[in-house]
Amino acid sequence: MHARGLSTRNIEALFADETGRSLLGRSAVSTITERLWAEYEGFASRDLSEFNVVYLFVDGIAERLHLGQPRDAVL
Questions:
Q1: Which pLDDT value is given to residue 1?
Q2: Using a CB cutoff of 8 Å and minimum separation of 24, what contacts does 17-23 make?
Q3: Distance, CA of 6 to CA of 12 (rounded, Å)
Q4: If you write DSSP's letter for every residue of 1-51 in order, what string do you get?
Q5: 2: pLDDT strictly greater than 60
Q6: Which helix (H) or strand (E) holds 72?
Q7: For 9-17, what is the mean pLDDT?
Q8: Domain boundaries, the chain
Q9: Cα–Cα distance between 7 and 11 in angstroms, integer?
Q10: What's the CA gap between 14 and 65, in Å, rounded?
Q11: What is the greatest pairwise CA distance in the chain?
Q12: CA atoms of 23 and 15, how far apart (whole Å)
C-alpha cells in the first residue's frame, strides 16, 4: 500500500528508533494504512443529505511528506 507516494518500506523507515531499528514491520504498516483508508472511505462517502449544509470549512496542516520537498497540505 502506498500513502502519498510513500512505499511501505519508506513508511517503515520513518518509524525507526535512534539506532535505525524499525519499530513497525511491513505487515503493521499495511494493516494501519488499510484501516486508515477504510475509515477515510467511510467518512468521505457518508450521507449528508439530512443536513442543510450552507458552508463547508476544511482545515489542514502543512507537513513535509517527502524529505527535501516542500510541505503539502494534509486535511
A1: 42
A2: none
A3: 10
A4: --BTTB-HHHHHHHSB-TTS-BSS-HHHHHHHHHHHHHHHHHHHT---TTS
A5: no
A6: strand 72-74
A7: 80
A8: 8-74
A9: 6
A10: 10
A11: 53
A12: 6
Contacts with 62 (C-beta within 8 Å, 6 or more apart), sequence order: 71, 72, 73, 74
Q: What is the pTM of this model?
A: 0.52
For residue 40, give the nearest of 48, 32, 52 by alpha carbon: 32
User: What tens digit of pLDDT does each residue of 58-75 get?
Assistant: 788 888 877 888 888 776
Q: Give me the amino acid identity at 63.
A: E
Element (H, E) at 60: none
Hey, what's the cell of 43?
A: 467518512
Asked if pLDDT for residue 15 goes beyond 50, the answer is: yes
Q: From 63, 58, 54, 50, select the one nearest 75 (Cα to Cα).
A: 58
